[in-house]
Design brief:
482 residues; Purple Acid Phosphatase, chain A, domain 2; 6-stranded mixed β-sheet; 15% strand; disordered N terminus
């Protein structure tokens, strides 16, 4: 739990600590050589009991934290999971889901995943989440009226299918509840081996507490990225002949994820960041027509920052946010990056989105009364290639400090990416931010090491030769712009 004396609570002026993390996991044994599932018993309903036997990383900065001795294996839960009678989720059910996913990641071959979460239970969960997400606005809000002196808002960055680190983060930050809000900044899937479990457990929390959990969209919640970076194949392996159905339902849910949030009226969060204004040009119709035709002219040569009104009107329900055409704001919000150079320009490195400088951060914050911008989108591999930008060793960077406030990048996947082609790993920590009363505008950083050991598992994508998402994308392979 969080407290003023928590050793991981870091001030903005604290110096980072270097802490090496463990080597990559070995490949999993072929399914036929794996041990059979253990006898079953009902899951515990206690959060503390759930983690009592799990091997988890401490969030202290001690170099001994990554040298964990594997804990005794958890006793298995009652599987397969069934949808609760009456249809309403409970904390006990969500705790049981977390228990099942953690245990199955160590004991059940991926192709036997339906023995843990049957398709009919998946369907009930994804439908419940779909209905909630598609009713939310493009920019969700946690208003000052919803917060009090006991409230905390936890902001989480990229997770990328690192299930065990997500479970640790939830416990370390304190589970969602009446006075504990969570805003997740996207990228739940791809690269890691448990993207499906990661997304579904967060979706279960969303269904349980829809006004306390906010799941924003990341650039990897798209058809293009999931087909390249592993999530599509992960789903097909885990659900076999039902895999296409499950994948299609997940994509439909991704389309409904909101794009951004505003917290306490003064904190803006989004996966990538800022976005352009879409210029409207009135064009006269032929004589005799009363109305004038309005065309959109997203002129790349005269970019200006967009407004929250424009954000609210953008069409987010697209499988792949367009990089051209009239609906550019979703792509900007999900793919853009900050820069140390002033101005607003197309993000030529990625082929989609924008680059914006400190002057744009100040302009946007001043115009809308903001004191903090929290974005994600860049891990240690991305930052390694960005001259002048801070590294991601501690799981966060403070990118711009301007008169109105700060721009921060938060990344919550430690020892990322899970699969790396060399032994020289990035060994980054993950981090999350806690916003505290009374103003909720001062970030408290909590860095943490990766959970070790990770279960041995094979990757679901060619991590050696895959196209780099931090460089120009294969735009021709993406869905047609709409």
């Amino acid at each position: 739990m969080l407290s003023d004396s928590d050793p991981t609570s870091v001030s903005l002026n604290s110096s980072p600590l270097d802490c090496p993390l463990p080597p990559p996991p070995v490949e999993v044994e072929p399914p036929e050589t794996q041990k059979p599932a253990l006898p079953l018993r009902p899951p515990s309903s206690s959060d503390e009991d759930f983690f009592s036997s799990a091997s988890i990383a401490s969030s202290s900065s001690s170099e001994d934290t990554h040298q964990n001795t594997p804990a005794p294996a958890q006793l298995p839960p009652q599987i397969p999971l069934s949808w609760p009678e009456g249809g309403a989720l409970s904390r006990e059910w969500v705790n049981g889901l977390m228990h099942c996913f953690e245990w199955a990641s160590r004991a059940v071959p991926p192709q036997e995943f339906p023995s843990v979460l049957p398709v009919d239970v998946f369907d009930r969960l994804i439908l419940s989440g779909h209905k909630i997400l598609h009713k939310e606005r493009n920019c969700v809000t946690i208003s000052k009226d919803e917060l009090n002196s006991d409230s905390r808002v936890v902001v989480v960055g990229d997770l990328h299918g690192q299930l065990h680190d997500v479970l640790f983060l939830l416990k370390d930050a304190g589970y969602p509840g009446d006075d504990r809000f969570f805003v997740f900044n996207g990228d739940y899937v791809d690269r890691g081996a448990w993207g499906l479990e990661t997304f579904l457990l967060l979706l279960a929390w969303k269904v349980l507490l829809p006004d306390r959990i906010f799941l924003l969209r990341g650039n990897h919640e798209s058809k293009y990225c999931t087909s390249v970076y592993g999530f599509e194949k992960e789903v097909l392996v885990k659900y076999g002949d039902k895999g296409k159905h499950v994948y299609r339902k997940c994509l439909g849910c991704f389309e409904g994820l909101p794009l951004a949030s505003v917290i306490a009226g003064c904190v803006y969060t989004a996966h990538g960041g800022l976005f352009r204004s879409i210029v409207t040009t009135p064009v006269k119709r032929s004589k005799g027509k009363k109305n004038r035709k309005v065309t959109l002219n997203p002129d790349q040569t005269c970019l200006t920052l967009g407004s929250f009104e424009e954000l609210s009107k953008a069409r987010r329900t697209v499988l792949d946010p367009p990089w051209e055409g009239q609906n550019l704001i979703p792509g900007d919000v999900l793919w853009s990056d900050p820069s140390m150079s002033p101005g607003l320009s197309p993000n030529k490195e990625r082929g989609i989105g924008l680059l914006w400088g400190p002057d744009c951060t100040e302009e946007f914050m001043k115009k809308f009364g903001l004191k903090l911008i929290i974005r994600s989108h860049e891990g240690p591999d991305a930052r390694e290639k960005r001259a002048g930008m801070g590294g991601m060793d501690e799981g966060y960077t403070i990118d711009h400090v301007v008169n109105s406030g700060r721009l921060i990048t938060i990344f919550s996947a430690p020892d990322y990416p899970q699969f790396q082609p060399t032994d020289d790993r990035y060994r980054n920590k993950g981090a999350y931010i806690v916003l505290e009363p009374p103003e909720f505008d001062t970030p408290v950083f909590h860095s943490f090491d990766a959970v070790t050991p990770r279960p041995a598992v094979n990757p679901y994508y060619d991590y050696v030769d895959v196209i780099d998402s931090d460089e120009e994308l294969d735009l021709a392979s993406m869905q047609p712009a709409t």
